[in-house]
């Protein structure tokens, strides 16, 4: 084709095919595979392209675990179980401490009650020195403030106190319902809440009749009150009776 002086020579027309004609049903040519990768692709893009986008996620952000992830309910169950074990261990430790403290407390209360009983036995029937009488009152006050009850059932019916005493000696014959506590060898110790720390040790006998009282004033008949086994001697030679621990 001849060239025109105004526009110069014309180039050859492009080949006409169906793919380059979208108006005749052809599809556009596919995009080149050598174009720049999208920001979400990994490894093929330039690292400088990701530096411009702080929200971009790459494979180096977090390693994928090799094992399967536990479901949420399994994680919650594990946390609850671990918490329950720790709580139970704390309760067991507290229980042991309370038992140890309670044992020391009750042991001290029982020893103090026995000492008070022996002191009262020394003072009974004799002019008591003021100092000893004051000590006895202080013992009784301390036990009362600590919530310790002093159980000395002498003179009470055995049927009423039989569940909280140990019988050291009793008459060989006679009606058990008519027996009374003739002597207390070791007092019982109870707490305000009803707990029995130590049972009382007693000697049983019968209530003397009026004729027996007139025949032997101030004494009971040997048949009614048998001789009781003597307790272990006390360290105090002036005190009749002794420790029954």
TrEMBL record:
Composition bias, Low complexity? 13-54
* Span list, region Disordered: 1-64, 208-245
Question: Polar residues composition bias: which ranges?
Answer: 235-245
Residue stretches of biased makeup (Basic and acidic residues): 211-225
Protein's UniProt name = Uncharacterized protein
State the organism named in the record: Embleya scabrispora
């Amino acid at each position: 084709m001849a060239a025109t002086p105004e526009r110069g020579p014309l180039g050859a027309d492009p080949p006409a095919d169906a793919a380059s004609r979208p108006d005749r049903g052809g599809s556009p040519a596919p995009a080149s595979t050598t174009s720049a990768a999208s920001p979400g692709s990994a490894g093929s893009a330039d690292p400088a392209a990701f530096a411009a986008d702080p929200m971009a996620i790459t494979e180096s952000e977090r390693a994928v675990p090799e094992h399967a992830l536990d479901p949420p309910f399994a994680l919650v169950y594990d946390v609850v179980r671990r918490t329950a074990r720790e709580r139970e261990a704390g309760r067991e430790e507290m229980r042991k401490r309370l038992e140890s403290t309670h044992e020391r407390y009750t042991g001290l209360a029982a020893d103090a009650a026995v000492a008070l009983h022996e002191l009262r036995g020394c003072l009974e029937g004799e002019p008591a020195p003021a100092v000893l009488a004051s000590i006895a009152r202080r013992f009784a006050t301390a036990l009362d403030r600590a919530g310790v009850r002093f159980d000395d059932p002498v003179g009470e019916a055995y049927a009423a106190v039989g569940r909280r005493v140990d019988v050291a000696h009793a008459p060989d014959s006679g009606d058990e319902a008519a027996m009374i506590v003739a002597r207390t060898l070791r007092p019982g110790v109870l707490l305000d809440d009803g707990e029995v720390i130590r049972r009382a040790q007693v000697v049983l006998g019968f209530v003397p009749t009026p004729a027996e009282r007139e025949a032997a004033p101030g004494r009971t008949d040997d048949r009614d009150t048998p001789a009781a086994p003597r307790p272990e001697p006390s360290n105090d030679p002036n005190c009749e009776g002794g420790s029954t621990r």
